[in-house]
Design goal:
The complex is a heterodimer of chains A (362) and B (206). Chain A is built from eight helices and 15 strands. Chain A is α/β, with parallel strands linked by helices and 362 residues long. Chain A has two domains: 1-112 and 300-362, P-loop containing nucleotide triphosphate hydrolases (Rossmann fold, 3-Layer(aba) Sandwich), CATH 3.40.50.300; 122-297, RecF/RecN/SMC, N-terminal domain (Glutathione S-transferase Yfyf (Class Pi), Chain A, domain 2). Chain A has a six-stranded antiparallel beta sheet, covered by helices on one side. A six-stranded mixed beta sheet of chain A has the order 8-12-13-3-14-15, sandwiched between helices. In chain A, helix 2 packs across helix 4. The radius of gyration of chain A is 21 Å and the shape is globular. Chain A starts with a strand and ends with a strand. Chain B has two domains: 13-61, Helicase, Ruva Protein, domain 3 (Orthogonal Bundle); 71-205, 3-Layer(aba) Sandwich (Dna Topoisomerase Vi A Subunit, Chain: A, domain 2), CATH 3.40.1360. In chain B, the strands form two sheets. In chain B, strands 4-3-5-6 form a four-stranded parallel beta sheet. A two-stranded antiparallel ribbon of chain B has the order 1-2. By secondary structure, chain B is α/β, with parallel strands linked by helices. Classes of the chains: A alpha/beta (362), B alpha/beta (206). The A-B interface holds A 146, 149, 153, 156-157, 159-161, 163-164, 167, 169, 171-174, 176-178, 180-181 and B 119-122, 126-127, 155-156, 158-163, 166-167, 193-194. Chain B: This is Recombination protein RecR. Chain B: Keywords: DNA damage, DNA recombination, DNA repair, Metal-binding, Zinc, Zinc-finger.
């Protein structure tokens, strides 16, 4: 058994005024009608990792209405024991405390590795590169917690460079200084991403799984290559970037290309069901690779994942999660969706009562 | 709650104004400012009057050094005026607090250049605001052998360091930066991954 959440407490978080769940490390099946507050629970767990969580919400959107007095999520992990807290008051940004001490968000990634799949990602392969890049970076972060620092450093320098471009500043020394900072961070970002992709590729090989393997590749915008050393490329691109008013080249423009391996078909041309199966396959491969690397599988957040799978695939997914020993938190509108899990999972029901979510173990 | 009347029913306006000014100091909030003012009021003769006098004097006499940006009481600071410190080394720091730290340690015998911040396009802080053109001129006119960049290891600090190094490249002066690694008396166990990595890369023969 790896690092899991033992207790989860939500205070004034979205539809929950006060919810407490005691978890025993088994997968968690959360059922309830639409709008009861199921996804809010797994969103709360997603905020125990760096970033804006699975809905990409800002801190002030997360407060319970109409009170809007701020919110707090608290979790205790088992083996080893840590106390994680994240909260926001009023319009302030979200804060993190680890074991009672203030900590940067990035430090969360060193404690829990969390991956998720939400219905909004069903169109991941057909929509813009931004979503795929985010998916890739979430997987990368699970292997390399310092990936968040590299991304932050890169974005900070890039925002400054974009301001220079917009203001038509022509001080070459200033560009060189920012571009060398960007290039350093870009090298780390790209290396981390390649490492994650190679671990996932390895975990797909020879795996016993009901889900189709995907061939993944990191590509540049419009299929271009991303230069290995970014600094000279950025320098050469200044005039073009100035015309655009932003930086057009770099890891912030990278894309994740996927192919349904056995059919050789690009993911965006697969059927809706196949696209979803590819995503599940990647999440599971990521989890297997992490389990092999760290000796502990990540926490999986699977929102409404059962609904789109036939009975056979659903049972296969549950079997693979149980074989991994991963603490997977899954939501579904009907408790029946989780029948084949039996007592291999903990079950919770969420209902809405008087404008407030109520969570109870069943 | 900071404005008038907040400090208790009938507190005179002058005392409230003093508390509000005091609360603007770093490390003080309304509550601690009130406590500090109360101490001053109780010790008017022994503490408050001398403090007021010292502040009035320094407010008139304080000057930024025209050469290095250090704060002193004359147009040229004591360090820049001291010929013994013309070693050909200029140490570039972000803030006067960093200069004071180096002076307290007594480890550096050259002169300084205080930037007063770091480059930030987003905050409209450019090379002119940081007196970088002055630094380049100093390097040319002061017979400088080495420029030591003692800047913070943040993205902005390092961007500023890169800028200065790049801007000085044409002058041929040697540009160095402080080492990063294990603090004296520090334990490896407590170092973050980045520092540990930097320390390992910069290892030296024993």
């Amino acid at each position: 058994m790896g690092l899991t959440i033992a207790t989860l407490t939500l205070s004034h978080f979205r539809s929950h005024r006060a919810a407490r769940m005691a978890l025993d490390g088994r997968p968690v099946a959360i059922s309830g009608p639409n709008g009861a507050g199921k996804t809010n629970i797994i969103e709360a767990v997603s905020l125990l990792s760096p970033g804006r969580g699975l809905r990409r919400a800002s801190a002030d959107e997360l407060a319970r209405r109409p009170d809007a007095i701020g919110w707090k999520i608290r979790a205790e992990t088992a083996a080893p024991l840590h106390e994680l807290e994240t909260f926001a008051e009023g319009a302030d940004s979200r804060q993190v405390r680890i074991d009672g001490k203030p900590a940067p968000q990035a430090a969360l990634g060193r404690i829990l590795r969390i991956l998720w799949l939400v219905p909004a990602m069903d169109r991941l392969w057909i929509e813009s590169a931004e979503g795929r890049r985010r998916f890739l970076d979430r997987m990368t972060l699970s292997f390399a917690p310092d990936h968040a620092d590299a991304v932050l450093a890169y974005e900070k320098a890039m925002r400054d460079r974009n301001r220079l471009l917009k203001d038509m500043v022509s001080d070459a020394h200033w560009y060189v200084a920012l571009e060398s900072q960007m290039a350093d961070a870009a090298t780390r970002i790209t290396a981390n991403r390649h490492h994650a992709l190679s671990r996932i590729a390895a975990a797909q090989q020879g795996a016993e799984t009901a889900f189709p393997a995907a061939e993944l590749a990191l590509i540049g915008p419009e299929g271009e290559d991303i230069p290995e050393d970014l600094a000279p490329a950025l320098a050469a691109n200044r005039r073009r970037d100035m015309a655009a008013g932003r930086t057009l080249l770099g890891p912030h423009r990278a894309d994740l290309a996927a192919r349904y391996a056995t059919k050789g078909v690009p993911a965006d041309q697969c059927s809706t069901g196949e696209q979803k199966a590819l995503l599940i396959s990647l999440i599971l491969a990521n989890a297997r690779a992490l389990a092999a690397d760290l000796g502990t599988p990540p926490i999986l957040l699977l929102d409404e994942v059962a609904a789109h799978l036939d009975q056979h695939r659903r049972a296969a997914l549950y079997d693979e999660i149980c074989a991994l020993g991963a603490q997977a938190l899954m939501t579904g509108t009907e408790p029946g969706l989780f029948d084949s899990l039996g007592n291999r999972a903990q079950s919770f029901a969420v209902v809405e009562e008087g404008g407030m979510s109520k969570v109870s173990e069943t | 709650m900071a404005a008038g009347g907040a400090h208790g029913g009938d507190t005179p306006r002058e005392i409230e104004a003093l508390i509000d000014l005091m609360a603007r100091l770093p490390g003080l909030g309304p509550r601690s400012a009130r406590r500090a003012v109360l101490v001053l009021l109780k010790r008017r003769g022994a503490l408050m009057a001398p403090l007021a006098q010292a502040m009035a004097q320094v407010a008139v006499s304080a000057r930024d050094c025209r050469i290095c940006g250090n704060i002193g009481t004359s147009d040229i600071c004591a360090i820049c005026a001291d010929d013994r410190r013309a070693t050909g080394e200029i140490c570039v720091v972000e803030d006067v607090a960093d200069l004071w730290a180096l002076e307290r340690a007594g480890v550096f015998r050259g002169r300084y250049h205080v930037l007063g911040g770091t480059l930030s396009a987003l905050d409209a802080v450019g090379p002119e605001e940081l007196r970088i053109p002055d630094l380049i001129e100093r390097v040319a006119t002061e017979a400088t052998r080495e420029v030591i960049l003692a800047l913070n290891a943040t993205v902005d600090g390092q961007t500023t360091a890169h800028y200065i190094a790049d801007a000085l490249a044409a002058t041929g002066v040697s540009v160095t930066s402080l080492a990063q690694g294990v603090p004296i008396g520090g334990e490896l166990d407590y170092l973050d991954d980045g520092t540990l990595g930097a320390a390992l890369r910069a290892r030296k023969s024993f």
